[in-house]
């Protein structure tokens, strides 16, 4: 017969129950002692029972029980726990490994009808928690170090157009300072609109080094790319169907939309914001966000204190980026000289730009959840030391390569496999790339 051991949750629950029973026993003994004392003082016990709002019969029972000798602690209520055996729990874990953490409790109950529902629910909860923590250790948090160096842009569509005309909002945000540079209602999400806003922001604030966006038509239009190239700005596009790669501006879109609706309701126009509300929402977001903590400067103040990018810094960045693009093409088995289509070139830039930013101390990559020291490695995982600061990241020859990047492994040289990775981008490649390039939305919002 195998030993039936309780889990930590069950042990804590039993300990809490034991403490409650012990507290009840202590109260009963004190009531019995008080009743005995007042009886010796020729005071009726009924005065005590009425004061405590307890029946005489209950107090008499407590007094009889207090007179009995007790060799054990208070008896716990309910049936004694009978947890599943270790072999049974191992069988459930193996079942979950084969079918994944999304397996519903009903399916687990159907596969193990002889086990109690409470045991199966606990095993499923613990398995999901372990999988979630393992995935968080494989994800990264991006810390942007230089205000004005990296921007992010995105379109947000509205269900009802603002003022009956503007069905889209173009958002542009500086990732390091978290300053919202643009929150502009526009009629159409076109390349001409993007180019006009980019040109205006470049003339007002100066062009950044990198501008992140998704693969929407207005952002990957040839005219938009030519405008960025004329200002020596490197476009950085998301992996397909991975909006979390641009999580900083994605989260800001939801926040500013909430500010916009709240301002419209405050001004007596609930559900009907105007362009004035959109401008006020942008100013409010820059005043409320404090990326360095509640005692630190606001996003607007950090943006005003930024240092302008010099021509020497831009030239050095672009020079190293060219070298890393050659290395990225070699890793992806792409031709070194031939021009690439949009998606293969974006895959090259995601690696090259990332490593160049880390090398120039413009970006620091940290794991979302650090592994406990001395803990054994997870099944199928590879241990990688995380950089302690930006200086350690800069000393690494592979830049962000300190964090595992399965997408840089050797790929098949067949044209079919290459096209499948660069154009379709399988989920296993995307998940790794997202884990090393996506931004933590909590940190990007200024609440971290």
User: The CATH topology of the largest domain is what?
Assistant: Nucleotidyltransferase, domain 5
Number of domains: 4
Strand element count:
7
Q: Rg to the nearest angstrom?
A: 31 Å
Strand-and-helix sequence, N→C? HHHHHHEEEEHEHEHHHHHEHHHH
Q: What is the CATH domain class of the largest domain? A: Alpha Beta
Secondary-structure content class: alpha/beta
Low-confidence stretches: 378-421, 423-448
Quote the average pLDDT: 81
In percent, how helical is the residue content? 40-55%
Give the overall form. elongated
Strand order of the largest sheet: 4-3-2-5-6
Name given to the CATH architecture of the largest domain: 2-Layer Sandwich
Main β-sheet description: 5 strands, mixed
Q: How much beta, percentage-wise?
A: 5-15%
Tell me the distance between the termini.
51 Å
What is the count of helical runs? 17
Task: Report on the architecture of this protein.
Residues 378-421 and 423-448 have low confidence and may be disordered. The chain is elongated. It has helices spanning 8-40, 45-52, 56-67, 86-99, 105-111, 117-138, 191-205, 222-230, 247-266, 275-288, 299-304, 311-331, 342-359, 390-395, 415-424, 427-437, 441-444; strands spanning 140-144, 150-162, 166-174, 180-186, 210-213, 234-237, 363-367. The chain is 51% helix and 10% strand. The strands form 2 sheets. It has a 5-stranded mixed beta sheet with strand order 4-3-2-5-6, sandwiched between helices. The longest helix is centred in the N-terminal third of the chain and has 33 residues, at 8-40. It folds into 4 domains: 1-68, no CATH class; 83-138; 142-304, Ribonuclease H-like superfamily/Ribonuclease H (Nucleotidyltransferase, domain 5); 312-371 and 384-440, no CATH class. It contains 17 helices and 7 strands. With 448 residues, it is of the alpha/beta class. A hairpin with a 5-residue loop joins strand 3 and strand 4.
